[in-house]
Amino acid sequence: MQSLFLLALLLSSPGQNSAAHEQALAASQKVLHAWLKHADPKTLLLPDRVNTPERLYTPHNSGADLYPYLILTARLTDPAIYSGRMMEMLRNEIRFTNVKQSVPGNLDLNTGKLGPASLFGAGEYAKDGLITVTEYLGRTPWTTRMIDMVADAMDQAPVKSDFGNLPASDSELNGDYLQVLPRLYLLTGDARFLEWARRITDAYLDEVLPADHNLPSMNWDFQKHSGDTKLKLRDHGNEIIVGLTMQFALEAQLGSSRASKMQPVLARMLDRVLASANPDGLLYNSIDTVTLKPLDERLSDNWGYVYGAVYTFYQITGETKYRDAVRRVLSNLPKYRNWCWEPSGNAKDPRLGSFDGYADSIESAIYLVNREPVPEALDWIDSEMKVMLAMLRPDGHVEDWYGEGNFNRTALLYALMKSQGVRAAPWKPGLRIGAVRNGNRLTLHLNQSARVEFDFARHRRVHNWQTNIVRLNEFPEWFTVDENTLYEIKGAATTQTLLGSELIQGIDLTAGNWTIQAK
User: From residue 504, how far is each of 246, 303, 442, 461, 501 by CA, in Å?
Assistant: First the structure.
């Protein structure tokens, strides 16, 4: 691993990284301010789309993919908006969109009409949005919103099965909940979340996978015990693969006998998924579960979501062929520069397709290079970020829909990669922070004096994972400090020794280059 980091150093410097960091944060801030102009005057909620007569807020679109990433953008770039407008939006979301207990519905912002309770909206909002806010910021009011919403949704689960009621008959929504429930169990210790996660897991482990050639169908009739023999390997289908692997990691951490039962079944599932890939390891949008032939030959921009599950399986089992599969696809990414992941007539350049394909594919790679810093993949991330950032219009929009939250998500992930997790408190336009790590030593560059905060082992200290498994919708940890370890912080004219806990709270540094290393 150390040699990989040394190779990665050759591709960048703290100064170069600081420029990339500033560009990504500035773009994110621009999107934040552009969307706030479209807030509903009464509720402050944001419509799914702008510049259209229809103004509809949905928890599975604006709630899941836009609002959470504006929260994170505000936390990093506009603290007053974070503690002000973003919190007021949460109050109003609860006030105006709750339908059945804390399960939300769609809200017509033109008429004020509220639709029925949506378990799909709750699942998407939790998995794609609120879990991400919690992954990065820890326990906040958004965390408790998620805990209550998911618990109420699971109490209302309508689909009968031999294993108990499930949220849905499709792999997307069941997978949404299965990605959230293990995390909530570790966060809260509430046994209900573990029981619900095991219920969904057993339904797939004991019924769906054995009956469907070791792969999960997109749709499954739990009364007739049969499915459609189709599997999406992009979003709206791959969620159950990620969820099952996360539950496996939890069972292994708990020392449960369920882990040994799950391991061979999941190995067969992942082996079949990998066997369906193209020669470079990239995945097709959808495949036939019987033949493995592609039903949609376009390449999935969510390839890394599935490979994150593959890598998690390696982390828990130690089976190196799964790590090798991840490294192989990362090393082949340079073949896919300027790739049209999602054809769209709305894009600035139709040859490139929608920005959303770039956002998801780059996000995919960032999760994985955090664990396996393959130089080819790091270089590819830089080149493709330039393409995506160039799609931003002067007005702060890209394509005028809620997916612009994904633009911000990936830009924030990239900025923190370039600063190795160090963030300004607060950031301001023109402030550049860049870093390069060499083992346990960080070289940090600031172009202006600033107060900066360092990252820590959130997976362990906040989320209670013993292993830092790949988690979809996480914010990866880069250079982390231990709270009870002393660190030497050395600049051109001064040296000081501080505890990691002090670095986490924030320290003032002058412009220039700094080295931070455990004593």
Answer: 28, 33, 15, 13, 5
Alpha-carbon span 167 to 159, nearest angstrom: 6
Beta bridge partners of 379: none
In the structure encoding, which two tokens stand for residue 364, read together?
Answer: 């995919």
Q: Are 71 and 88 in contact (CB under 8 A)?
A: no
8 Å CB contact between 230 and 218: yes
| Tokens at 271, concatenated | 């082996």
Which residue carries 């070791």 as its tokens? Answer: 214
Q: What is the pTM of this model?
A: 0.97
74 token code pair: 């505000």
> At a CB cut-off of 8 Å and minimum separation 6, what does 448 contact?
430, 431, 432, 511
How does pLDDT run across 304-318, given as a tens digit for each residue? 999 999 999 999 999
Cβ-proximal residues to 454 (8 Å cutoff; 6+ apart), any chain: 421, 422, 479, 480, 481, 500, 503, 504, 516
CB contact at 8 A, 436 and 420: yes
Long-range contacts of 46-51 (CB under 8 A, 24+ apart): 46/70, 46/89, 46/402, 47/109, 48/401, 48/402, 49/400, 49/401, 49/402, 50/397, 50/400, 50/401, 51/400
- Residue 279 to residues 268, 276, 295, 312, Cα–Cα distance (Å): 20, 9, 17, 22
Give kind and range of the element (H or E) at residue 517.
strand 512-518
The two structure tokens encoding residue 5? 């980091």
Nearest to 70 by CA among 517, 408, 420: 408
Spatial distance between the Cα atoms of 395 and 443, rounded to a whole number of angstroms: 36
Burial environment of residue 67 by CB neighbours within 10 A (0 to 12, 13 to 18, 19 or more): buried
Residues 147-196: pLDDT tens digits?
999 999 999 999 999 999 999 999 999 999 999 999 999 999 999 999 99
Q: Which residues pair with 514 in a beta bridge?
A: 444
Which residues are bridge partners to 451 per DSSP? 508
Which helix (H) or strand (E) is 459 found in, with range?
helix 458-461
Beta-carbon count within 10 A of 478 CB: 18
Residues in the chain: 519
**Helices within 156-256 (DSSP H only):** 171-188, 191-203, 209-211, 239-254
